[in-house]
Amino acid sequence: MENKIELKKGLILKNIKNNNSLFDGLSYEGLCIIRDFEIPIFVYNLLPNESANIEITYYSKKCCFAKVIKLLNVSKERRILNEYEKLLYESGSAPLLSLDYSKQIEFKETLIKKLFARNLNIKEINPIIKSPKEFFYRNKITLQIEYKENEILFGFFKKYSHSLIPQINLLLANKQINNFYKNILLNPQTEIDIKIKETIFSLGPNKITLRSSNLDNNIEIVLNINKKIEKRLIDELIELNKLKKNYKISIFDELKNKWINLLEHQGIKYQIDNIFFEVKNDSFYQINEELAKLIYKQILDWIPNKNLNIVDAFSGVGTIACFIANKTKKVYSIEINNNATTQAKRNIEINKISNIEIINADANEWISKNKEAIDLVIFDPPREGLKNKSIEAIIQSQIKQIIYLSCDPKTLIRDLKEFTYSGYSIKKIQSYDMFPQTPHIETLVLIERKNET
């Protein structure tokens, strides 16, 4: 029965109960869903089988958001957080952190099963593959910066705000990034590191991105600056950087929308099996590389034979193309970003691969014009999924096989429905917990064109 209380921002509701199961009581984003009122209330930090006093922090005619003021009844599935975990959880960067990891996996598996059953009538789904690490798995992280009178704070903005939650430890970032964070950014140990920190923050960056290599001790440091940059400070930082060449420092000038690389470098280096990559500051590379390796091996396993011409669409720096090249006749690595294309060429040179053709073009247009040459397409699109013209290009080309790697189950389902309406069937599905402590799920799907009779 609906409660007729008039909801509004700032209203405190007492003894609100979440009596739903784990799988019905949480939204895709990991928020508790209260349906006792005329509109749903999404509550942060309230698990199923818990009750609390809550305060509405946002109101609209369609829904409300709320925060817990006081927990009244605590679920046995709630983790007790230490001081570092509490800071991370408060920032909203790890919405599932309060839930035991085994329950996080159950939640994600059930979500995937429900989406495929409801929308595609597929009821048999493989168990999700867990991340080898629950914490310290990210090779890249971005921190917001706040300047106080006598200190500089680093952390994450609280969700839906510009309120900074400072972080003592970076629980999701790998050990190399954490060492740099603690020993350079928070508490520099040597004279040169003290001077580098002073010069960096004299420039006044509003955020800093750190990325580490799994091959060496190099750290990529990207400074975002949204004010006039003094050349004197840049020159000073260049001279300091020459003394610490393992710091790959770049600046993104937000006012001029351009990059400044202090020292010329080829990028951060990575290795997956016997394949090597160089990735520069403005290019995408998988965050959880240990799990990415398992995904790439699965893609390789789904390629039926070595006589295929394969398109790696939206290929970035050519990671997937390089990984699969040894099991294909030819790979067309298609990427519209010119900088990423340049890096992809560099990566095939490093690995001495001769059967990859790097193409700087719109993948949709290229596929439409070259459909006769293609046996299989691999898609790894951004979170918003494929655009209509991508799907239309594939459908019209009648390409036999598609491997689709998605980082958003909802846009994946939307796109799969379009393929199944147009003569394709779903053959295999495998999900991965690429981002533990968050609700995000990576899913790999093998799609094949039905034989015409």
UniProtKB/TrEMBL annotation:
Active-site annotation: C407, C407 (nucleophile)
Residues that bind S-adenosyl-L-methionine: Q286, F314, E335, D380
Keywords: Methyltransferase, S-adenosyl-L-methionine, Transferase
Superkingdom of source: Bacteria
Name recorded for this polypeptide: RNA methyltransferase
Record has Membrane as a keyword: no
The organism of origin for this protein: Metamycoplasma auris 15026
UniProt-listed GO biological process terms: rRNA base methylation
UniProt similarity note: Belongs to the class I-like SAM-binding methyltransferase superfamily. RNA M5U methyltransferase family.
Pfam families linked: tRNA_U5-meth_tr (PF05958)
InterPro entries per UniProt: MeTrfase_TrmA_AS (IPR030390), NA-bd_OB-fold (IPR012340), SAM-dependent_MTases_sf (IPR029063), U5_MeTrfase_fam (IPR010280)
MF GO annotations: rRNA (uridine-C5-)-methyltransferase activity
